[in-house]
């Protein structure tokens, strides 16, 4: 049994691509490069961010129609789990800019069929994580508040902050969401841009992403905190902040991938 375990560990170690060690302040450089990409093609980047802002407003409007506005924070936090996939067009934009190409909004979604195929499995994984979070959130809601639906927003804030049940829900929900977000972050940080650019299977991409985290614990914790901060800012401004925050983070994630992964050194056997 132990020998088999060692063989499996060696097999995992030989999957994907080699990763580089980066300095602690590297995430700020990624943001700076991401901002330069936003400025290079503002019509494309901001239109991309505006698109997702309008989608968010659409869901908010729909939740309002069915008197479920209290579910907005749940869906908004779930949106963060899908972020690595939804930013694929931004990775494509940064990639083309890197190669000196001109880019239009139409070309942002112009991926070859092989790339779509490689991303398909990973898309299922992220959507499963999103659905799992929604299910867990409503289960916790029923467990602590004893109802099938969330109370109105004006009551929910008071319940969360000034009742024992609400504080329990707030703590357990935050902890559960943080754990799930950490898993998604660890497995997808570089996996999606890697699948976009290289002929590699999803498992090898995930292994590469986890390896990048292990080698760069400090910088990646800082990067996760910066992503969370920008996304919270985007959400609390009624999603208007996402017009800039989402493309900035998307472009910066591409540069994080380029800094972290040595795409010329494949480890797969």
The class by helix and strand makeup works out as mainly alpha
Ends distance: 23 Å
Q: Strand percentage, roughly? A: under 5%
Integer count of domains: 1
SSE pattern, N- to C-terminal: HEHHHHHHHHHHHHE
Major β-sheet strand ordering: 1-2
In angstroms, what is the radius of gyration?
Answer: 20 Å
Task: Outline the structure in words.
The protein has 269 residues and is mainly alpha-helical. The protein has one domain. It has 13 helices and two strands; from the N terminus they run αβααααααααααααβ. Helix 2 packs across helix 13, helix 4 packs antiparallel against helix 7 and helix 7 runs antiparallel to helix 9. The chain is globular. The N terminus is likely disordered.
SSE layout and pairings?
Elements: H1 2-13, E1 17-19, H2 26-40, H3 42-65, H4 72-86, H5 88-98, H6 105-108, H7 113-145, H8 153-162, H9 164-188, H10 191-197, H11 202-215, H12 217-236, H13 242-260, E2 261-266
Antiparallel strand pairs: 1-2
Helix pairs in contact: 2-3, 2-13, 3-13, 4-7, 4-9, 5-13, 7-9, 7-10, 8-9, 10-11, 12-13
